[in-house]
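Researcher: For the record, we're logging two predictions in this thread. I'll number them. Prediction 1 follows.
Model: Prediction 1, sequence and structure:
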Amino acid sequence: MAKCGVPRIDGLLDGGGAPALGPGDSDAQAVGLVQELLRAQGFTRLPDMRSNAYGKFGDLTRQAVVACRTSAGLDDTPRVDGALLADLVKRSPANPVASRGYLTLALDFEYTDLLGLISLTSLFESGARFACLNLNTDRCGLSFGIIQWAQKPGRLHEIVQAFRDAAPDVMAEIAGSREILDGLLAHTARPNGGVDAASGRTLDARFDLVAEPWRSRFEQMGRNQDLQKVQIREASGAFQASLDRIRRDAPMVSSQRGFAFMLDLANQHGDAGASSIYRAAARPGLAEPDVLAAMEQESVRRVASQFGTSSNEAASTLNRRQFFRTTPWLSDAEGASV
């Protein structure tokens, strides 16, 4: 178990004498991490980092804590102590999410700023759910996982190949046989990922990945902890490559907030799209907050021109741009270490 880097949580788990968390607790960072662990156990009404209620130990959090303490054979008090945290970490989550607590305490990743930004960005792609599936609603075939590796652009093939390279026996068992797994890889390696370029529908009925049995198979991949670790490693590589390009192409961005904004922009529009939006928005003499605001407008404009001004896509794009520009969970200090 790696340390999560939240002092109160690490202190509770290592027996260092940290006080238990309870209703009205002012340690928002620690309370938020607990809420994330509880959400993964099926308490989906609890807030994530996009909500103003995140980090506040209110009535819903109290109810979830009492329920988990009771089921763990502890007591029925609304206390988050080391015993409850240890139980939450060892439980198999009903819907595993790439939260800070789960990535560090359950998957044993050392916490880094980049890992935190992956977790934050994935909220808007998948609700940070490892087993999230998008069943061709965007005409890209199947999109899967925390950052939605999409079939038509060839990214689904990349993650399935990484799964097979890391855990061939696990993948063969999930697919049904090594021959079926080989067929899946051959199919997703085809032009447009094996789907029709216009509709996103499969070109081979044996590999209709948005239908059963493939839906259940991909959900099983998302619930496997070994494959979850592969998702994080692959996402880390992709984000680091994007970050390197951002440092080169967007010199007016220098804070943690700015890099997080740009990484989310790149995850939605692609690296080239993010660089293009930056060039359209950046003007000499602008401060970083003004550049981010101008990029928000340009990003929303491009999505609206494709899907319509009143479309869900345009609204969700505006929401995620505004979140990264304004959330208190990101720093505006220059010289970010990400």
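Researcher: Logged. Prediction 2.
Model: Prediction 2, sequence and structure:
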Amino acid sequence: MDSGAAQRAETEPGFITGDWGTSRLRLFLCSAEGALLDTAEGPGAVEAHGRHAAVFETLLARWAPRCGELPAVLCGMVGSNIGWSEARYLPCAAKPDQIAEACVALQEGRIRIIPGLSCRNRYAAPDFMRGEETQILGALILVPALARGRHLLCLPGTHTKWVWLEDGAVVDFLTAPVGEIFALLAQHSVLVRDRDPEQCVAGEWFANGLQAFARLPGAPLLHRLFECRSRRLNGEFTAQQSAAYLSGLLIASDVSGALHAFSDPTARRTVNLIGAPQLTDLYAIALGAQGGTTTFVDGTAAAVAGLAHVHRLLA
């Protein structure tokens, strides 16, 4: 390929990818080489219910006329039972090519929807993910070493995922609804009432929550949560400090439980974090406090790389 053709391949639209979650749709216009050219945002799967095709085509209009004919790969809640078309969960262990092969085709194959994954987790309970599998695929591309040997991944979020990889295959995973529990307690309980939701929960009081958990690691989390209220009543905490302390307790408990569940003497105790920096930073601090080391992959970059990889596998 001459230099002019190579430059065109890097800058001309080649395909479209999208992460269509519960509350937000993010579309990415990519070159044939997988470079990100432009982005667009729209309503999530819940708001778009019953009109997914119309929402998708409306967003493509900004990239018209040629882009309306480009192939597209979508992940997330778009493949759920409230989405555009259900892409059933693929049971683990699951390899990248198996995930691509299980995609659901729409519009005569122009659009593909990536399936979620299912497993029996370390506690013999059913577990599910939808959307995170694409970030995992992207991490395998961005960090090729993850495709060899055994690795523990952590994808922090509303429902944090702890994922066990063996030679690039997702063997099993464990979900902890840390973000959801924090939001519920912060918004609907007296524990951290009156806090400013715009202020960060990191810092000294987050570290205090980690340290409090470390002092009594065997104490049930339920027996510690009311401290967030009682220490305010005692004048030790402000509302914001109480929220940071609560976050520290929750994340420390999650980390401790996951490291115990996924303990493996043949694997290094390095956790590969995938997600937004404001969340992965908190988990990196908590893991460091419990003797773990971490690596980091940006969640958006991983999602785009994973979607592009599925496109290449399908092509």
